[in-house]
Amino acid sequence: MSSSMAVYSPRFAPSFESASGPTAINRSSSLRYNNAPPSHTFPTLRFGITKIGASSSSSRRTRSTGCFAALSPELKTTLDKVVTSHKVIVFMKGTKDFPQCGFSNTVVQILKTVNVPFETVDILENEILRTGLKEYSQWPTFPQLYIDGEFFGGCDIAVDAYKSGELQELLEKTLCS
């Protein structure tokens, strides 16, 4: 019996061209992009993004969100830094203390059950972050679990890996390295 269904590898790591840009992670900053309307500042994120080196207001262009790619070079660089600066991180709806959907809650409960330290980022706080992450991971839904700097998968993959013991094994190796 042949099938044309693609098989997903849970250790898939998206490949993107290296992006450069003056970006820094600042836990108390706001997200701001030059291609957003000058008066609009996005809500503060747990891992906020600040553009270093403010540009002049004359170089800012007002554009609708449909006119540019969701994953800007600045956002990609920042996501690279955030993902690699934590052994285990979950981009999810809500926080680990207050998940806002059942799938996010399931992943949080799995990680709490295996007793690993992990960070979460609430994707509901920012539309650009939410849409950019879908492009960054090549995964359309949330939560998105990253382990040791690599995209691991969503809720279903985390549940299956937990049931088989693969997740516990990977997390143990990751935390020991």
TrEMBL record:
Source species, domain of life: Eukaryota
Molecular function terms, GO-annotated: 2 iron, 2 sulfur cluster binding; metal ion binding
Bilayer-spanning residue ranges: none
Domain Glutaredoxin: 88-151
SUPFAM superfamilies the UniProt entry points to: Thioredoxin-like
InterPro entries: Glutaredoxin (IPR002109), GRX_PICOT-like (IPR033658), Monothiol_GRX-rel (IPR004480), Thioredoxin-like_sf (IPR036249)
Keywords of the record: 2Fe-2S, Iron, Iron-sulfur, Metal-binding, Redox-active center
A Pfam family: Glutaredoxin
NCBIfam families reported in the protein's UniProt record: Grx4 family monothiol glutaredoxin
Similarity comment text for this entry: Belongs to the glutaredoxin family. CGFS subfamily.
PANTHER family, per database record: GLUTAREDOXIN FAMILY MEMBER (PTHR10293), MONOTHIOL GLUTAREDOXIN-S14, CHLOROPLASTIC (PTHR10293:SF72)
Protein name: Glutaredoxin domain-containing protein
Organism of this sequence: Centaurea solstitialis (yellow star-thistle)
